[in-house]
Amino acid sequence: MKILTVKFLKEKNACVEGVEWFEKQKNHASLSIINALIKEKRYDWANWLIVKILPYKGYVSYAVYAAEQVIDIFEKKYPVDKRPRQAIEVAKKCAKNPTNKNIANAAADAADAADAADAAYAAAAAYAAYAAAYAADAAADAAAYAAYAAAYVAADAAAYAIRNNIRLKIIKYGIKLKKEIK
Description:
Largest sheet: none
Radius of gyration: 16 Å
Shape: globular
Distance between the termini: 6 Å
Number of helices: 11
Number of strands: 0
Structural class: mainly alpha
Low-confidence stretches: 117-124, 134-142, 153-159
Oligomer: single chain
Mean pLDDT: 73
């Protein structure tokens, strides 16, 4: 289990408020911190931390999972627009086999998916988009960005409670990934 430090958080560009919160915690094990964040409903911070502690395949898988949680909402509203789905599929392929060709394909699909973003961004996808965006930031590569773009465009308006349920579901998947990878 990874023990977190202030140095690690600062190297990953954690916000000042997050670092201050972290310093007040007794247990600095990564999963303990994530669970404390969940308890306090700081889902955005929990999500941020998950992608910072996962290896490449883990955070791309996490981003894809986040995008898949809301893609059906987008596809119901825009049934002929396949760009987000294609971006998800390319990101999956890139996670399994991160070759330069796969990354280049992911970049092209991400650009197409990003074009669709103007048409469909809304609250229900916000968390999935953040999850994937953090993965894109952590990855600094096109595969994670493809998942980000897919998640970003994959929603319509939804209630706050539904959004939080999606957030929690995604975070729990991230915890599962972290436990599996160790």
